[in-house]
Amino acid sequence: DPVSAFGSILGFNRPVDRATAEQLSVPGRFIEAIIAPDYEADAFQILTTEPKWKANVRLLKCPAMLDPRPVTHDYRRVTGGLLVQERDEDEDPRSNWQVVTARHPNPEEYADLEFGWLVSKHVKSNAVLFAKGGMLVGVGAGQMSRLDSAYLASHKSGDRSQGSVCASDAFFPFRDGIDQIHQSGVTAVIQPGGSKRDQEVIDACNEHGIAMLFTGRRHFRH
């Protein structure tokens, strides 16, 4: 999404190396801030001397990002108090997933479905994501309806949606979301299931030749 990436903030879960810094410094990109566990000396030199935005970029070093200890709770401020809740960190093994359509995902689709499902729990609901080749190609986040999120993911992904898979953080309540992602070229879907109209959604997938998995567990980040 090159439009949203302009003036962006980037986060890395590993030290930034020279090759990454060179890629970030390609002309036409503008980065406001970067946070990472560390920066190699060459990477730091490149980011602070080569791009046009070299004088304005904020480089934040946070070694604690490499700490393997899990954070067990989330905290949300509410009027008059503080909401403390367990983080969405439970294991969600593939063995618990169920193929509910006539067509089963192929190995490449399975890999992208697993990746998309992992990422979906970090995206604000209603979340619909498109993934392809181990990358996100479109994200629809924080919309009032799942159909709007599906449309936004389709719009953001453009031609990259052809042959992609879709991950939805909660169930599709109607078949309209499936019809929308089919128009974008999505070939497989992963979602929790649990709607009163699950069969309608399954029928839509079968009609379009889309493989679909139910996980039995939703994410629903707010």
3D architecture notes:
The protein is α/β, with parallel strands linked by helices and 222 residues long. It has 2 domains: 2-66, 3-Layer(aba) Sandwich (Cytidine Deaminase, domain 2), CATH 3.40.140.20; 94-214, AICAR transformylase, duplication domain (Cytidine Deaminase, domain 2), CATH 3.40.140. It is 29% helix and 23% strand. It is built from 7 helices and 11 strands. The protein has helices at 2-5, 18-24, 41-49, 107-120, 146-157, 176-183, 198-208; strands at residues 8-11, 31-36, 58-61, 73-78, 81-86, 98-99, 128-132, 135-140, 165-168, 188-191, 211-214. The strands form 3 sheets. A 6-stranded mixed sheet has the order 6-11-10-9-7-8, sandwiched between helices. α6 (176-183) packs parallel to α7. It is globular, with a radius of gyration of 20 Å. It starts with a helix and ends in an 8-residue tail after the last strand.
- Total strands: the figure is 11
Instruction: Give the biggest beta sheet.
Output: 6 strands, mixed
- Provide the number of structural domains: 2
CATH superfamily of the largest domain: AICAR transformylase, duplication domain
- Which topology of the largest domain does CATH recognise? Cytidine Deaminase, domain 2
| Rg for CA atoms | 20 Å
Keywords:
11 strands, Cytidine Deaminase, domain 2, 222 residues, 6-stranded mixed β-sheet, alpha/beta, 23% strand, globular, 2 domains, 29% helix, 3-stranded parallel β-sheet
